[in-house]
Specification:
Shape: globular
Order of helices and strands: HEEEHEHEEEHEHEHEEEEHHH
Strand order of the largest sheet: 7-4-8-9-3-10-11-12-13
Oligomer: single chain
Helix content: 25-40%
Largest sheet: 9 strands, mixed
Number of strands: 13
Strand content: 15-25%
Distance between the termini: 62 Å
Number of helices: 9
Length: 315
């Protein structure tokens, strides 16, 4: 318990958090990046980690921190799949060559499938213990976790999300970390703007993080993606629905990456809901109802509101 002025005097001794990925992620923040499957979360996360490890900014995004080691916990790709993204495939020899050279500061970690759990120890607890040991061993202050569904069996319910976020926040405070955690979004209506409610799991996840941004799919071009800021504490929300960051996924040689294209509005990249789409949805609503689905189940399956289900069933 201190006076407000005492807290300010104490805060003066700490440096201002530097940008790690533009205004989207700063030092000492627990940040979540979420998106639907196959939209490039891992591609962007590796690119961010590479930028921090070699000290070079990603074109179009500010970078203020020093070059430093990062720990990339890859629970998604095998080593071979990772290699494929950062090399060139020789079709004649059926092998990968001309590999991209990462800085030694980029430390990738994956699960050892042959490891035996200590007696009476759960997978989740031992994984959390292993993460902490990796932090102590390397001294890294930057963690990227791809993705958080491996840290807990479920993130859908508040009772499961709360311990997960508490654990990550505890690690952040104990070691002075900056953490970027990747997460999924469940099935959603692609004609609507991305909101915090689209993050898979309870709102508890959003409540516990310092910042959050999402990747959206563009329906104007299959190679385009847009990045939208969902939550920020160290800055104002700059990249909202009227000012999203437009990028394209490309691999000019041996490095799969997001290339900054410019800024735009979210609505120009959303799926246009046509009269034919509406008719198809009405038809599917009635089909599912005939199969015994409840109105709530239909709403979840088709990503529409309960009111819409009720309305369509009366037509």
């Amino acid at each position: 318990m201190k006076t407000a002025n005492s807290w300010i005097e104490q805060a003066k001794k700490s440096p201002i958090p530097q940008m790690l990925f533009g205004e989207l992620w700063h030092e000492n923040e627990l940040c979540i990046l979420f998106a639907d499957t196959n939209l490039g979360k891992s591609i962007l996360a590796v690119q961010i980690g590479n930028s921090i490890s070699n000290g070079e900014k990603i074109p179009g995004f500010k970078f203020e921190a020093n070059k430093q080691p990062i720990l990339y916990f890859d629970f998604e790709l095998s080593a071979k799949q990772f290699e494929a993204r950062y090399s060139v495939k020789n079709e004649d020899k059926k092998e990968f060559e001309n590999h991209y050279f990462f800085d030694k500061n980029f430390i990738r970690v994956e699960i050892n499938p042959d490891a035996e759990l200590p007696k009476n120890e759960s997978f989740e607890n031992y994984l959390n213990y292993s993460i902490e040991e990796s932090i102590k061993e390397t001294g890294s202050k930057i963690l990227i976790i791809d993705n958080i569904t491996y840290l807990k069996n479920e993130t859908e319910k508040a009772k499961d999300a709360l311990p997960l976020m508490k654990h990550l926040k505890a690690l952040k405070s104990k070691y002075g970390l900056s953490i970027l955690a990747l997460a999924h979004t469940p099935k959603r209506d692609l004609s609507k703007a991305i909101t915090r409610n689209d993050l898979q799991g309870s709102k508890m996840l959003i409540n516990f993080v310092d910042s959050c941004f999402a990747i959206g799919e563009s329906h104007t071009d299959k190679y385009l993606r847009y990045i939208k800021q969902i939550k920020a504490r160290n800055t104002e929300i700059l990249y909202d629905t009227e000012n999203v960051i437009i990028c394209q996924i490309q691999k000019p040689l041996n490095y799969l990456e997001f290339e900054f294209v410019g800024l735009g509005t979210e609505r120009e990249h959303l799926k246009q809901f046509t009269e034919q789409d509406r008719n198809n949805t009405i038809e599917k609503t009635k089909e599912l109802s005939q199969k015994g689905y409840s109105q709530r189940q239909i709403a979840s399956e088709l990503c529409i509101s309960l009111g819409a289900v009720n309305k369509y069933l009366k037509l």
